[in-house]
């Protein structure tokens, strides 16, 4: 039986009951102790005329409880410890005294004595059910100990007596009475407090309603005046709505036309890029993760096989979307000219010529245009088992067979724009002797710059390198799937920050 009243009136009902329980408990504990101290010795009068086997033991059991309870009561008055502890001591003393019989054959007197203690405890005591359970088991433990010691009987003999069965039934009934009485008192108190709080709140609400009525009368007059203004505003809004609807339809049509144009541009850019079949033919053990941000991309990849050498590049142009796509056309055109027509196969020389080509195409010496590209180019000579790499800011990441990672950084300058360094320095090629078990990665900065995760932060290059090291043991198709899946999970619904390009390959 549990009262479930929400704390809706500015008072915690359970806390209020705890305080009330302590207050009532202290009162009952004080009177219970006084009754034991002064009245319990009177219950021994009928036994005064009976011959007792051991008078000292009889005095200890019959008057000892009153003395113990008196001492504990004085300590309780001074130190104010829990009334539940005082009750437990009182119950222990009463049950211990009642368990001792002068005549072990006089079961009726014993039964009446124990039943009286049980019923008196249930009627006079106010305790939580847990403590009555303790009392209930303590009764029978004390009885068994006293009975087996003073009446020269076993534990089984004790439970075979009919009076014990009656005592158990009375004990359970007394326990039920005590529990029912506790919860009735608790529920009555909490209902009473809740009703008082509700009454006070209703009075406050009534005052608030009276004030609100006055405010409503005043506002009603204001609303009447505002209604006239609203009618005029409504007509104006309807007129504006019609105009906005026309503008919306016009904008939607323009948007459809623009998206259609961009979709067509996507087809053109897709035709410019190497096909998956061509990449797989050139590098069978490879993948290309390519995720444009805005349909068309400023990132692009380029591949060709010239004079027995395989060339693959990952290039990141300034911008994304349509402007980035225009730059990718400039880059692709120059790469075709430099490699396919002029036959240049050294990666550093390719980047140097690409720089001059972009600068010339965009007339950067004559204008303020500073657009350019970052790139990573790999040239593979399978006959000589060597590889050459050059980078414009972007690196080459190598995960070796033993899972060690080697990073070959690109030069700290971009393609196109004005350079702070001496133009004669140019880009530098790096020679690499590869192992067939090594895995190589070139990429743009789109993956590592993506915002997302639990704190809406960038993925960061260190995390990308660790991820590449983790997936490098997988097959290339599995690497593609895992990298794409991790990218989508990291975004977590955030918009894509930049175009993404990541190429991974092994050389057989």
UniProtKB/TrEMBL annotation:
Protein name per Swiss-Prot or TrEMBL: SpoIIE family protein phosphatase
A GO term, aspect molecular function: phosphatase activity
Chain segments annotated as coiled-coil in the UniProt record: 209-254
Organism: Marivirga salinarum
Keyword set includes Calcium: no
Keywords: Coiled coil, Hydrolase, Membrane, Transmembrane, Transmembrane helix
Keyword tRNA processing part of the UniProt annotation: no
Ranges annotated as spanning the membrane: 27-45, 57-76, 85-102, 108-127, 132-150, 162-184
Sequence ranges assigned to domain PPM-type phosphatase in this UniProt record: 312-506
